[in-house]
Protein: Enoyl-CoA hydratase
Amino acid sequence: MTTKLGNVVTVSSAGAVGVLALNRPDVLNALNRELMQELVAELERMDRDDAVKAIVITGNDQAFAAGADIKEMADESAVSLLLKRQFDVWDRIGGIEKPIIAAVSGHVLGGGCELMMNCDLVVASDTARFGQPEIRLGVMPGAGGTQRLTRAVGLRKAMELLLTGDTMPAEEALRCGLINKVAPVELYLQEALKLAHRIAAQPPLAVRLIKQAVRKAEDLPLAEGLDYERQCFYLLFASEDQKEGMGAFQEKRNPQFKGR
Ligand code: CAA
Structure:
């Protein structure tokens, strides 16, 4: 395990899994510009690093993140936000091809919840609380909350959370389909790492194309999504891993995937 301390993100790796920990504990990991830039730069670096097969993003037990940094935002104007291209950095998360697992605990609010919803899988501690409280600040989510929360939990629950600013506990988030798994607070990070290691051991090309195809399902009409899936399926038959996977099945041995 190697660990590198950035200004506001701690970067470590455990075998084939890269781990990024948000590190502004004094402000419950509020997402300021520096943190988002550092986080996304590290995500992109890990995405290009062949040794990394899956990525975990976490915070600490008290907070994954309590939202965008309100103090940094308070004096902005519509024009300053537009000129700063405030959300461009968020859009780059959509370009990450490796699977991202969020390991969340404590406050998962506003931009924190939106960051989590940008991840592909979520393991939460039993102390986690989720919500989009922006309405209490006189604004609304700006990093995808109205769209991704609605797709994840359905229109009624999204309306309730967004219009009241209330939070919901981990068990409810699990029932709503917002997260994959709940674990005791001492174990959620371990569980997320376990899941990441399982995915990291899968054939990398199939992992990459499955992530792409599932992400397309959020945007495409069914017929186009099915067509996209089929092209990806055909493409995998050009890989050595397909020959290895199907050969190993017939020879009754474990496959050795090489990612080509
Ligand atoms: N931005 C900046 N600082 C924050 C913050 C945020 N989002 N959330 C917490 N902090 C800071 C507090 O100001 C406080 O700092 P000081 O000690 O310097 O005063 C420190 O973190 C600890 O917070 P609290 O004392 O408030 O802790 P608490 O346990 O009493 O309450 C809380 C916790 C309920 C999460 C409360 O901090 C809170 O309501 N935070 C704001 C949540 C929020 O509104 N998030 C949405 C932000 S807007 C957004 O995210 C827009 C978007 O779509 C991108």
Summary: The chain has a mean pLDDT of 97. The first strand starts at residue 2 and ends at 5. The radius of gyration is 19 Å.
